[in-house]
């Protein structure tokens, strides 16, 4: 009986570690001027993209990976938002890519992702830190400041409201 109880406790502890903060919302984060959208990322084709080109637009940076169920659920909403707000809003998907860039590209093609997709690297980590749970979306205002960090899946309407408040 004691062994069974110990096993049950150990299982619950391990399960809770893997869950992260999927439903929580973190407070707005201010970054110093040197870090505002001041990073580059590599596309799945290996090209370097300078995120500073997005200044003046509302930007959603989606940190995700191919194996993540909530990430898969949210991507169609981001595709719709990208279509609806073209020219005003930029969406960038940065994958952890533990399975490699070719797998990320194949997944992007399968999901018909129409916004820029890259690999979450060291420069992005200097600006955003290393998210403990995915998806994590950073909502960035036209000034390049991180307005809000959102952890976990949210419906499309949630992001529409956030975008409208920053336009």
Indicate the topology.
Blueprint: H1 2-19, E1 25-26, E2 40-43, E3 48-50, E4 58-64, H2 69-84, E5 89-95, H3 101-111, E6 117-119, H4 122-128, E7 136-140, E8 146-151, H5 156-166
Parallel strand pairs: 4-5, 5-6
Antiparallel strand pairs: 1-8, 2-3, 2-6, 4-7, 7-8
Structure, explained:
By secondary structure, the protein is α+β, with helices and mostly antiparallel strands. It has one domain: Glutaredoxin. The chain has five helices and eight strands, in the order αββββαβαβαββα. Strands 1-8-7-4-5-6-2-3 form an eight-stranded mixed beta sheet. Strand 2 and strand 3 form a beta hairpin. The radius of gyration is 17 Å and the shape is globular. It starts with a helix and ends with a helix. The N terminus is likely disordered.
Spatial order of strands in the largest sheet: 1-8-7-4-5-6-2-3
Q: Write the CATH architecture name.
A: 3-Layer(aba) Sandwich
Tell me, rounded to a whole number, the average pLDDT: 83
Radius of gyration: 17 Å
Largest pleated sheet: 8 strands, mixed
Task: Give me some keywords for this one.
167 residues; Glutaredoxin; single chain; globular; eight-stranded mixed beta sheet; alpha+beta; 5 helices
